[in-house]
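Repro:
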Amino acid sequence: MRSENIPISGPMLKEKALEFAEALGVESFQASQGWMAKWKTRYGVSFKTIAGESRSVTEEMTAPCLETTLPTILSRYPLEDIFNADEFGLFFQCLPNKTLHMKGDKCSGGKHSKVRLTGLAAGNALGERLPMFVIGKSANPRCFKGVKTLPCRYRSQKKSWMSGELFEEWVRELDRKFSVSKRKIALIIDNCTAHPHVENLEWVELIFLPPNTTSRTQPMDQGIIRALKAKYRSLAVRKLIKALDEEKSTPKFSILAAMYMLRKAWDDVSNKTFTNCFRKSGISQKDAERAINEDDDPFKSLTSEVEEDPIPTLDAELSYIKRRFPDHIDPDLSTEDFIDFDIEVSTSHGRLKTADIIAEITGTQDEELEEVDEEDKEEEDKITRPTAKQVRTAINVLEDLSIFSHFGEEMIASLRDLNRNIAKDFDMSCKQTVITDFFSK
């Protein structure tokens, strides 16, 4: 209720507590003043006047965004310091033969949480993007075993949702990141229960969009996330085609493999897509345009539409599967359906109803939680540590490539350092063989 700016009082909490007690069959419970005082102390709750907060929230969040909020931001920040962040749901293992029956599934109550991820994409109008943030169900996936560096930031949540705690942790780390470069940024986000008002931020200012306006005013929703998903689907389809051409079983991606694919897809979204989507949302800066040299102007010849279209590549890949392997694709599947089928996937719980809270307490919605280990056991497309021989072969290939390519001296030196460090790492991790290893007991 407070996330929606609705005042809460002690008597209201007592009445709600009595309602929960009745629903849970707790007959001896009394919402006494003593219980209320202990409850407030236990959870650090205090009641304060919210008149000032109510006025500030109302002015910022209910006025037309394009008329008030965005011009105010643009007047205080250069374009490169205005970022937007938004969550998206992703069925990371889904291939073309399992798409249509899941299309439009909002996945409320954690449904399908075992096979989906929530991603947080954030970037600015010039194409500068923050590292991808991925939320999954399993706290310690088996595919992470032995992995020292993950391709993306990863956190777990029992329904694969963004929560207020995870969001606040991410924002505070972002604040520390920009404090190093002394760079003050504006972070535009939608106004939902998973995005709390984080206090005491020094280098990140949170700008909340008015409710029910994000489909028009949020740059990520104007085509950036769709381009990201199209590129991710393309990578998944290529793995499927490779497996089918080699007469192997259909790949089933691990969370780690999905994270690598997401990072590559995120890096491959063009800067032009970012620029156009921000402009389409009403975020532009004429003064910045004039200050940039005309030859390097990223705004030159812009239209209101996203110019980069990743769909043709994916369309050709799906057509190839339909011709060669018709049994591995739904014949009625279109490229647009394949990209957008998980567009309605929930990324946060929204306002929980009483029945939802009771179900969580009694465990009636948690049947899937015990299946986490089985999920990891079934994964086939695991990323395994290369052998010493494979690493040395790769090093030799890179050294040969440097001879026949126009590498600069700095790049060649970096390559040599990298190769030397990799070789050293493997030499350190390899156990010396002794003669007794060749004899059985």
